[in-house]
Specification:
The complex is a heterodimer of chains A (134) and B (386). With 134 residues, chain A is mainly β. Chain A has 1 helix and 9 strands, in the order E-H-E-E-E-E-E-E-E-E. Chain A has one helix spanning 15-19, and strands at residues 7-8, 26-31, 37-38, 53-58, 61-70, 82-89, 96-101, 114-122, 125-132. In chain A, strands 7-6-5-8-9 form a 5-stranded antiparallel β-sheet, with no helix packed on it. Chain A has a 3-stranded antiparallel β-sheet with strand order 3-2-4, with no helix packed on it. Chain A is globular, with a radius of gyration of 15 Å. The two termini of chain A are 23 Å apart. Chain B is an alpha/beta fold and 386 residues long. Chain B has helices at residues 24-39, 67-73, 92-102, 117-122, 150-165, 169-183, 197-201, 263-272, 291-300, 309-313, 332-336, 342-352; strands spanning 6-13, 48-51, 80-83, 108-116, 134-135, 205-207, 210-211, 220-229, 241-247, 283-286, 367-372, 379-384. In chain B, helix 6 (169-183) crosses helix 9 and helix 8 packs parallel to helix 9 (291-300). The longest helix of chain B is centred in the first third of the chain and has 16 residues, at 24-39. The model of chain B has no long low-confidence stretch (mean pLDDT 97). The chains are: A mainly beta (134), B alpha/beta (386). At the A-B interface, strand 1, strand 5, strand 6, strand 7 and strand 9 of A face strand 5, helix 5 and strand 6 of B.
C-alpha cells in the first residue's frame, strides 16, 4: 500500500485516538461511571449518558472477528491485494476496529487469529494497524 | 379500501442506462409522467414529495435532484416534503410518505430516487468527483484503512457467513445468476446478457468473497412511486397496493460496531407490525446492490434460519420466476441496474398488478415484500393487493 492514505480530520473528540500511538499505546474512551467503552469516541457514555469519560489504555491485542481481501484498485497507486479486517479489541467488550492486517501474506489471515497493534505514522496521525501474533 | 391506510398507486421509471445525456431532472420527469398517467392523476393533485437522500452536493451524481428543486421545477404545491439521507435507507422515503398521508399531511406524494453516477463519471467538468484531503464522520473509521467501498464493508459480513455457516461461492452466485436470468425478460433492464456459473466462478475478485458479478454498477435512471391516502383513493384509476406493514430498525448506526446488519432487527420487526406471516408472501424483492445482502434479507425476514440463506438459494430453483419464492423478478440491481432501492418496490407493485409481461409470476400474487438497505440501514415494506 504505497499510495498515501487518506487521513482523518482531527477534532476534540477523536484527537486522542488518532494520536494515541505516539507512545505506542492504543486507547479507547471509557465511562468512569459505568465502565462502558465508547467507540466511536464522543463526550458522553452511550450506556448511562454520563459525561465523565476518559481515554483508557488497552492491551493492544485482539481477535479477528471477520475480514476481506481487497483486490480492487480503488485509487491510483494503491497496491493490491491487502487485508481489511474487523478486530475485536481485548479488554474493551463490544468494541471493534476496522483496520488492516499487515506483515503476513493475505492468505495467512483467518477469522479467530490473534493480532497485536502496530502503529503507522503519517503526519499527525498514528494509524492502528494489526499484525498476527506469532 | 380503508381511509386510514396508505397505498402505492402510480409507478414510473425513466430510461435506464449508463452515461445518459438526458438531464437528471428530465429523467425524473419521465418517471413522474409515467406514474401520473398510470394513476390517472395530474401534477396539480400532487401535494407531497419524498426522496432519499436529497440533493447530494458533495457527490452530485449520487443524488442530483433534491426535493426542493423538484417542487420548484414542476410547480408542485407541496404541503409536505422530505429529502434526507438520515432515514432508514432508500425506501424509508416511501415509509415516511405513508406516515404523511395517514396523518393527513398530504394526499398524493411523489416518492422518487434519481441516480446519475455513470453520467456524472463521464462528465467530470459538470459533475466534479468527490475530492477529500481528510475524512470525518463515519468515513474516518474506514477510508484511512483503504476500506473505501461498501463492497469492502459488506464483504466482511459475507466472509463471516462463509467461515461460520459454510456459505459457498456457488450459493452466492445464485443471486447474480437469478438476477441476470430475470433481467433478460425485463425490457428496461440495464444488463441484458446471460451469466453462467462458469463465468461467475472465473470472474475477478473485488473484495473476497465478492467478485465482479456480486456488485452492481453505476446506472443513470429515475424511479417513482406515488403514495396516496386511502381517503382519496377513488381519485386513482390503477389498482392500489396497500402498504400493509413497514419497519426500519437501527440498533447501531455503524458499519462495524454492529454485530448484525440492520436488516436482521428490521425483518423481525416487520412481522411484529402485521398479522401476515412469511408463508403468506408470494414474491420478495430484496436489496442486492451486493449479492450477499439478498441472502441476509432472506434470513432476516424469516424465510430461513440465520446462517441458512446460502442453502436456501442453493441451485436457484426456489428463487426463480417459477419457484416457491420468486426473488428480484425484474433482475435486481445486478441485472436491472443500480436503481438504488426503489426498483424493488416498483417491481413488487408490477407483480402484484400482474403487469410483469414475460417475467410475470403465476398464481395471482397478492402479497409481496420490498426491502432496501444494507449494513446500518434497512427498510422493509409489506405490500398487499386486497
Amino acid at each position: 500500500m504505497s499510495a498515501p492514505r487518506i487521513l482523518p480530520r482531527l477534532d476534540s473528540d477523536n484527537r486522542f485516538f488518532w494520536t494515541s500511538g505516539a507512545d505506542g499505546q492504543l486507547r479507547f474512551l471509557r465511562c468512569l461511571e459505568c465502565a462502558t467503552f465508547i467507540h466511536p469516541p464522543r463526550p458522553v457514555c452511550r450506556g448511562c449518558l454520563s459525561e465523565k469519560v476518559a481515554p483508557q489504555v488497552v492491551a493492544g491485542t485482539g481477535t479477528i472477528d471477520t475480514y476481506t481481501v481487497n483486490y480492487q484498485q480503488w485509487q491510483p497507486g494503491l497496491e493490491v491485494p491487502y487485508v481489511i479486517a474487523r478486530v475485536a479489541i481485548d479488554g474493551a467488550p463490544g468494541v471493534f476496529l476496522t483496520t488492516n492486517i499487515v506483515g503476513c501474506a493475505v492468505e495467512a489471515v483467518e477469522i479467530g487469529d490473534r493480532v497485536r497493534v502496530t502503529f503507522e505514522q503519517q503526519g499527525d496521525v498514528y494509524l492502528p494497524l494489526f499484525e498476527k501474533i506469532a | 379500501m380503508s381511509a386510514m391506510d396508505a397505498y402505492i398507486t402510480g409507478i414510473g421509471q425513466s430510461e435506464v442506462g449508463m452515461r445518459l445525456q438526458r438531464s437528471p431532472l428530465l429523467l425524473t420527469l419521465d418517471a413522474i409522467r409515467e406514474a401520473l398517467t398510470e394513476a390517472g392523476l395530474g401534477i396539480a393533485q400532487i401535494d407531497g414529495v419524498s426522496t432519499y437522500p436529497g440533493r447530494s452536493a458533495a457527490y452530485l451524481g449520487f443524488s442530483p435532484i433534491g426535493a426542493d428543486e423538484l417542487i420548484d421545477a414542476l410547480g408542485i404545491r407541496a404541503r409536505w416534503h422530505l429529502g434526507s439521507l438520515e432515514i432508514s435507507s432508500q425506501l424509508g422515503a416511501v415509509a415516511a410518505a405513508a406516515m404523511a398521508v395517514r396523518t393527513g399531511q398530504a394526499r398524493h406524494v411523489i416518492c422518487y430516487r434519481t441516480v446519475y453516477e455513470a453520467a456524472a463519471m463521464s462528465r467530470p467538468e459538470e459533475y466534479p468527483p468527490l475530492r477529500r484531503d481528510r475524512v470525518d464522520g463515519y468515513s474516518q473509521w474506514f477510508t484511512p484503512f483503504n476500506a473505501f467501498s461498501a463492497a469492502n464493508w459488506t464483504a466482511q459480513y459475507a466472509m463471516r457467513h462463509v467461515k461460520r455457516f459454510g456459505l459457498t461461492r456457488e450459493q452466492l452466485a445464485q443471486i447474480a445468476l437469478n438476477d441476470r436470468a430475470n433481467a433478460l425478460k425485463n425490457p428496461r433492464a440495464l444488463v441484458r446478457e446471460p451469466l453462467t456459473m462458469e463465468q461467475y466462478l472465473s470472474a475477478r475478485m473485488i473484495s473476497t468473497p465478492l467478485c465482479l458479478y456480486d456488485c452492481d454498477r453505476y446506472t443513470d435512471a429515475s424511479t417513482v412511486l406515488i403514495v396516496s391516502a386511502g381517503a382519496v383513493i377513488d381519485e386513482v384509476k390503477c389498482t392500489p397496493i396497500r402498504i400493509a406493514a413497514m419497519a426500519g430498525t437501527v440498533e447501531r448506526h455503524s458499519w462495524d460496531q454492529a454485530e448484525w446488519m440492520a436488516c436482521y432487527p428490521t425483518g423481525a420487526d416487520l412481522w411484529k407490525n402485521t398479522d401476515y406471516k412469511p408463508s403468506d408472501v408470494d414474491t420478495v424483492q430484496l436489496y442486492d446492490g451486493f449479492s450477499f445482502q439478498a441472502i441476509a434479507w432472506l434470513e432476516a425476514l424469516g424465510f430461513c434460519a440465520v446462517g441458512e440463506g446460502g442453502r436456501y438459494v442453493e441451485g436457484g430453483k426456489r428463487i426463480a420466476l417459477d419457484g416457491e419464492l420468486p426473488l428480484n423478478t425484474f433482475g435486481g440491481q445486478l441485472g436491472a441496474g443500480r436503481l438504488h432501492g426503489f426498483g424493488f418496490a416498483h417491481e413488487a407493485v408490477v407483480q402484484l398488478r400482474g403487469l410483469g409481461g414475460k417475467r410475470q409470476i403465476a398464481h395471482d400474487p397478492k402479497i409481496a415484500i420490498a426491502a432496501s438497505g444494507g449494513g446500518p440501514l434497512a427498510t422493509a415494506l409489506l405490500l398487499a393487493r386486497d
